[in-house]
Every structure is written in structure tokens, then in C-alpha cells.
Recover the amino acids of this structure.
């Protein structure tokens, strides 16, 4: 199978590319710069020059491939609403171009796309009140000859090279001289190792179920306090509880995520695809992946 991957040089996308190749697939990666093109060529995979901010630039490659995996997303949270809308537009363009082809279009979403309380399952649709739900609007093209599906990622996709929420929490702990959690810290985060997440993207493209929502979740409900304590231990810093009104002072833009309670099941995903997690859990990986090296931001 020939698979086009956006975000092919990114943290998750590069792992997806490696897993696709391991399974014997041919990969074409999106390159929006000379630097990205060189990196892809050095990896021995094909390239398509284009830009996710110009969705039409991706259309020519669609006739050359059997499936598309979209992992690119702009994580600049100062422009979060704009970025979510841009992702919706991109996926709409791709889905319309693929209509009637019966090709798979697998995109990235998040486990935090619903506003419902309790355990998050694959059967719960995204809430229109959550900005990232824009990344799931294209699922409706399952009725127009596109094998659409999303892989929802948890707040922590961890592993060597992680530059997202956990490294940001570590940097804040260094800055403030303490690791922190909000209230009693019993709010829960799901997590997955990036290699396990990559495996699920490949399962999704090999076993397309139009309109499916998959959960790349290895650990369902890690108390945020446990993450904060692991950071404190890793840095040799105290760990403290913060009242809600002080959370933004410590966490800044991360305050909303530090407070989120997002227990998430992957039972249906495992049953439907046979997917299983094999890598280290988050707390163990925070040491093994060198999260606390001095150069970690």
C-alpha cells in the first residue's frame, strides 16, 4: 500500500512513517520546507511538496496513493481556535477530493473533544462546543465513498523527543522551584507511548472502518498528582497543591489542561483492531526517555 503522511517529520508522524515501513508499506511524506524534504529523503521515503495551510497543494498526490494519514497539527495555543478551523478546512478539502475513491483518510483528533463527564469512550461523538471537534467533521464523508476515521490522542503522547505537555510541566516546575497539581490532584489523564500510537494509526489504515473513532490510549486514568510527583522526584523539587484560583499563576496557558479530568477507555479500539500497547507507561517513561536531562526545556 502507498500511504501519504502529513506531519511525517513530527513527533507522532515520524513514528507512523517508521511503523508503516516496518509493515512493508511505501510512504510519501509531506514536505513544506527544504529542511523537511532533506530529512524525508535521508530517511529514504518519497516526498510531496506542499503546505497544510494551502490544502489544494495536497490534492495532486492523492491520485498516487492508496490512503492518507493526517498527523500534522499546529499546536500554537495562542492561535488554537484558528488552528482547529484550519484543520477542519484541510480535512474537508482532502475528503472532497477523495470522494468516491473508497480510499482511507485517517486523521488525528484528541480524547478531550467531548464535554461529557465520566469515562470517555469511542462511542461518544465530539462536542461542537470543543474547538478540536473541528478535526472530526470530515467523518461524515464515510457516506460519500471515503473510508474516514480518526485516532484520538490523549493529553500525553510520550517518548523520546516529546516536546508537548509533560516537558512544558517540567519547565514550569524548574521555573517556579516546585512541581504542582490543582486541588487534590485526582483529576485523571490518559496517556500513550508514541510508538504504540503509531501502531494504531497503521491498524486503522489497514483495517478501515468508515466513520470510526479510535482511542490511542494505553493508560486510562493517571491521577495528575502522580505526574506532578514524578516531576518533583525527577527534578529533586518539592511538590505542592494549588487552589484553583492560583493555578493560572503557576501553569499559565497549561492551567486548563492541568485541571482536565479525562479518563478514557480504549476497549472498543482494542476489540475491533486487535491493537495492544507494548511500550513503557508514562511515569516509567519519564525517566527512560530522559525527560529530566538538563537540556530538557
Amino acid at each position: 500500500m502507498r500511504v501519504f503522511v502529513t506531519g511525517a517529520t513530527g513527533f507522532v508522524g515520524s513514528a507512523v512513517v517508521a511503523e508503516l515501513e516496518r509493515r512493508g508499506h511505501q510512504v510519501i511524506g509531506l514536505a513544506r520546507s527544504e529542511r523537511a524534504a532533506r530529512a524525508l529523503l535521508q530517511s529514504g521515503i518519497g516526498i510531496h511538496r506542499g503546505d497544510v495551510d494551502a490544502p489544494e497543494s495536497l490534492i495532486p498526490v492523492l491520485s498516487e496513493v492508496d490512503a492518507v494519514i493526517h498527523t500534522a497539527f499546529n499546536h500554537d495555543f495562542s492561535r488554537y481556535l484558528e488552528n482547529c478551523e484550519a484543520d477542519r478546512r484541510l480535512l474537508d478539502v482532502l475528503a472532497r477530493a477523495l470522494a468516491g475513491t473508497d480510499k482511507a483518510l485517517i486523521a488525528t483528533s484528541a480524547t478531550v473533544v467531548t464535554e461529557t463527564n465520566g469515562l470517555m469512550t469511542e462511542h461518544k461523538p465530539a462536542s461542537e462546543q470543543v474547538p478540536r471537534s473541528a478535526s472530526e467533521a470530515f467523518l461524515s464523508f464515510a457516506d460519500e465513498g471515503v473510508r474516514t476515521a480518526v485516532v484520538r490522542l490523549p493529553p500525553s503522547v510520550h517518548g523520546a523527543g516529546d516536546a508537548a505537555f509533560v516537558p512544558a510541566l517540567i519547565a514550569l516546575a524548574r521555573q517556579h522551584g516546585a512541581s504542582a497539581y490543582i486541588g487534590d490532584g485526582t483529576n485523571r489523564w490518559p496517556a500513550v507511548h508514541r510508538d504504540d500510537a503509531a501502531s494504531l494509526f497503521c491498524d486503522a489504515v489497514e483495517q478501515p472502518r468508515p466513520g470510526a473513532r479510535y482511542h490511542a490510549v494505553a493508560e486510562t486514568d493517571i491521577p495528575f498528582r502522580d505526574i506532578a510527583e514524578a516531576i518533583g522526584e525527577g527534578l529533586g523539587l518539592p511538590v505542592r497543591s494549588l487552589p484553583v484560583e492560583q493555578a493560572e499563576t503557576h501553569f499559565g496557558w497549561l492551567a486548563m489542561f492541568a485541571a482536565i479530568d479525562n479518563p478514557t477507555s480504549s476497549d472498543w479500539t482494542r476489540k475491533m483492531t486487535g491493537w495492544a500497547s507494548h511500550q513503557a507507561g508514562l511515569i516509567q517513561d519519564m525517566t527512560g526517555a530522559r525527560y529530566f536531562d538538563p537540556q530538557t526545556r
In short: Residues 137 and 250 are 35 Å apart (CA to CA).
